[in-house]
Task: structure prediction
Amino acid sequence: MESKAVVVPLKTLSEWPNQAVSVTWNFVRSLKYFSKTEVGINSLVVRMIISHASFRTFTGLVVVCISLMSAGCMKPSVRDNAADLQSGGGSSLTIWHDSFEAARQQALVSGKPILADFTGSDWCGWCVKLKKDVFNKAEFEKWARENVVLLELDYPQRSHQASEIKAQNEKLASLYSIDSYPTVLLIDAQGNELARTGYHRDPEAFIGSLQSQL
Result:
């Protein structure tokens, strides 16, 4: 008996975009790249692209997804970072400011001091070790969310840094007489230094060093 190929008819052009959006969007969401705040905008982008007559095949759907990823429409969300942290992926849910003024404003509103980390992210071995041994630990992150506003003041030697951030950091290093890295300060919203410390082997020792000065 002669076998016959089974042909599944495509939807009409008017119906296809809606079906394609559903398939494509489920695929995109499965990659865990979108945050909820971006769903509306990026869903519209997907719909607009797929609605074009040239995207009426499965290959077209794949091209759409790859194009979105390449164009930077997808990025990790805070929720994804939390999942990575719970699974041991090393990503951090804790938010670090890089603007002193933004940190100061949050400190004013919350009544919490600023924890300012003066670091050299791409050359200072002890800075990298402090981040790994203390800042990336769940114990520190819990304490930080409850007690301080986090500010990272980086002094890279190879990585690119925005000129305004570089100027800000140099000014703050001079203001607080920073001569070694890492140096970590507790600063109130008025800019007064409350405590100073450096590397410690674990969150308990690090937090204890700061609290003993208050």
Summary: Strands lie at 114-119, 149-154, 183-187, 193-197.
